[in-house]
């Protein structure tokens, strides 16, 4: 009987790893950014039986050498010592704390690990990260370190990938990522976002899809598919980093698009289907989500894992 139960449990394990650390929580308290969502996502994945404890891996913090491939020594020193100027803190839009600094170093380590595991398993999910507004010398929009850029540079430095693509579907344009990789032909950046929203200005990505206010499921998915196919037609990445923001949701407080929870899952599936069709591994990170009800944000992020299992779980 015991062996039967073990066999049942084994069958339910995922074919890929989910990267999570309790230290992902930025401990922001009453802030529009619900940074406890990382823990809520992990708990719900287990509670709903989508994942088993063995499906999770615990990341190490990124090394300073990894971080310094992207960020300036001045910015790294300011974060580590807490000696940020008032303009720097106002741009960052979250308070400095030791927990916040540890969380973003862990998020970057988690995205590095997700990239490594995606290369091994075809897909991996970091439950934190997608901090796409961080620039080399400053943070902004709740993003202190650009974990995706750090992961790309780390994997390139290790010789694990030559090139990569960032597909960013957060409702806000990935300005930090676009600026970091601008002019770098080894990293292709695609951002689909609401045009009339933060950030302003928007440094150019390789493809920027500026959506009108109120864009809904059908238009969004069609426009994304057309542009994704065009991007993958001319660029063949060793790895895709997928930034799956929950904030294109129609009930998001900081977004002005009109996607439903089901439409957001179709979006995730679309990206995964095209990557799988072409044999390109995908590492995902959740990015933003500011729904009135935090359980909606959590559900949207969980659905990214469910969609990945539907696409990459097939052998
Ligand atoms: Zn966002």
Written account of the structure:
This protein is an alpha/beta fold. It has helices at 2-12, 37-47, 64-67, 73-81, 86-92, 98-121, 147-157, 175-181, 217-234, 261-277, 294-312, and strands spanning 17-19, 56-57, 123-126, 164-168, 187-194, 207-211, 240-243, 282-285. Strands 2-1-3-8-7-4-5-6 form an eight-stranded parallel β-sheet, sandwiched between helices. Helix 2 (37-47) links the parallel strand 1 and strand 2 (56-57). The relative contact order is 0.15. The model has no long low-confidence stretch (mean pLDDT 95). Bound molecules: zinc ion. Zinc ion binds at residues 170-172, 245, 247, 287-288.
Quick overview:
It is built from eleven helices and eight strands.
Radius of gyration: 18 Å
Class of secondary structure makeup: alpha/beta
The ligands bound in this entry are: zinc ion
- The string of secondary-structure elements, in order, is HEHEHHHHEHEHEEHEHEH
Low-pLDDT sequence parts: none
The overall pLDDT, averaged over residues, is 95
Largest sheet: 8 strands, parallel
Percentage of residues assigned to helices: 40-55%
Overall 3D shape: globular
Total count of helical runs of at least 4 residues: 11
Number of strands: 8
Primary descriptors:
8 strands; 44% helix; single chain; alpha/beta; eight-stranded parallel sheet; 315 residues; 11 helices; globular; binds zinc ion
């Amino acid at each position: 009987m015991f062996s039967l139960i073990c066999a049942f449990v084994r069958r339910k394990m995922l074919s890929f790893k989910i990267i999570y650390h309790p230290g992902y929580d930025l401990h922001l308290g009453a802030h529009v950014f619900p940074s406890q969502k990382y823990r809520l996502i992990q708990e719900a994945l287990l509670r709903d039986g989508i994942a088993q404890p063995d499906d999770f891996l615990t990341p190490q913090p990124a090394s300073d050498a990894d971080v310094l491939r992207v960020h300036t020594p001045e910015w790294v020193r300011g974060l580590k010592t807490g000696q940020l100027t008032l303009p720097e803190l106002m741009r960052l839009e979250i308070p400095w704390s030791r927990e916040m600094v540890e969380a973003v170093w862990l998020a970057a380590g988690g995205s590095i690990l997700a990239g490594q595991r995606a290369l091994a398993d075809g897909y991996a999910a970091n439950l934190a990260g997608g901090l796409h507004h961080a620039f080399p010398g400053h943070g902004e929009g709740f993003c202190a370190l650009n974990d995706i850029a750090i992961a790309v540079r780390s994997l390139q430095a290790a010789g694990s990938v030559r090139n990569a693509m960032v597909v960013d579907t957060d409702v806000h344009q990935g300005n930090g990522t676009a600026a970091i990789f601008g002019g770098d032909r080894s990293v292709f950046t695609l951002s689909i976002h609401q045009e009339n929203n933060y950030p302003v200005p928007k440094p150019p990505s390789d493809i920027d899809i500026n959506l009108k206010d109120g864009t809904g499921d059908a238009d969004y998915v069609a426009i994304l598919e057309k542009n994704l196919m065009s991007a993958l037609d001319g660029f063949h990445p060793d790895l895709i980093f997928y930034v799956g923001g929950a904030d294109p949701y129609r009930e998001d407080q900081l977004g002005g698009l009109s996607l439903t929870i089901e439409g957001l899952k179709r979006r995730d599936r679309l990206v995964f289907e095209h990557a799988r069709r072409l044999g390109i591994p995908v590492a995902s990170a959740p990015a933003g989500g500011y729904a009135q009800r935090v359980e909606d944000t959590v559900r949207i992020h969980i659905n990214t894992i469910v969609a990945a299992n539907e696409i990459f779980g097939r052998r």
